[in-house]
């Protein structure tokens, strides 16, 4: 669109202004990948608009990646500055139109508008209608997500379980490790949902086993009706790809890693978490083709 004839430079700049709202891991990764896509691939096809591309990240907090260690936030902001990615912190978006995005700067109390060609919204998730309707039926309409007990059962519903982003554990009755106490409000990540799914399936399987073999020894202490230990989330760390073959990682034990070596660690973890060897081979082959031939722009 930016290279169509008859457009003014102002219109070209607006078409090539990409705004990412939300400075969390998803928004930061998208901004980094978009920057690499332009610098490594698209400039070869459209060299005439190389200097017109602009990427802006809008974050309501004081720093991007504010759920990470301060060292990672600082490293990411400095890298984005070197890459020419504009990071606007302390700004809250109040409206979005087809050509402008309006935001309020907290420090100044001013409202300003900037033109855009594309807005990517990455500030979080909302409740699905089916979950929201269910919450109203069970008296949880005033909650942000479904409230469950330590066994992932929805409060007020004995045989309904909820895991993942749509639910939150209300309280714990057992002493927790330091990691568990820090993760009382569990992050909306696949890591949490995967552990909850594994835990819940294990509970269901053992429950059937107890029914079939009631005379067998009980592995867990019972307080009347509960036969299993409550769910405990084990945090294995988190990664944030920053583009340019660099990444940042925050791992258990207060270990922070940043740079090119961390990117290769991220590749290893990402490939190992695939569901089958078929998908691992496909993912690694895609990476290899990109390294050798670049990205396939015809599929975008």
UniProtKB/TrEMBL annotation:
Record keywords: FAD, Flavoprotein, Membrane, Mitochondrion, Mitochondrion inner membrane, NAD, Oxidoreductase, Peroxisome
Localization per record: Mitochondrion inner membrane; Peroxisome
Essential cofactor(s): FAD
Domain FAD/NAD(P)-binding: 16-197
Enzyme class: oxidoreductase
Coiled-coil region(s): none
Reaction(s) catalysed (UniProt annotation): a quinone + NADH + H(+) = a quinol + NAD(+); a ubiquinone + NADH + H(+) = a ubiquinol + NAD(+)
Gene3D superfamilies: 3.50.50.100
The keyword Membrane belongs to this UniProt entry's keyword annotation: yes
Single GO MF annotation: NADH dehydrogenase (quinone) (non-electrogenic) activity
InterPro entries: FAD/NAD-bd_sf, FAD/NAD-binding_dom, NDH-2, NDH2-like_C
Domain annotation External alternative NADH-ubiquinone oxidoreductase-like C-terminal: ranges: 235-296
Enzyme Commission number, as recorded: 1.6.5.9
Entry keyword annotation includes Oxidoreductase: yes
SUPFAM superfamilies: FAD/NAD(P)-binding domain (SSF51905)
A Gene Ontology cellular-component term: peroxisome
Membrane topology: Peripheral membrane protein
Family the UniProt entry places it in: Belongs to the NADH dehydrogenase family.
Listed name of the protein: NADH:ubiquinone reductase (non-electrogenic)
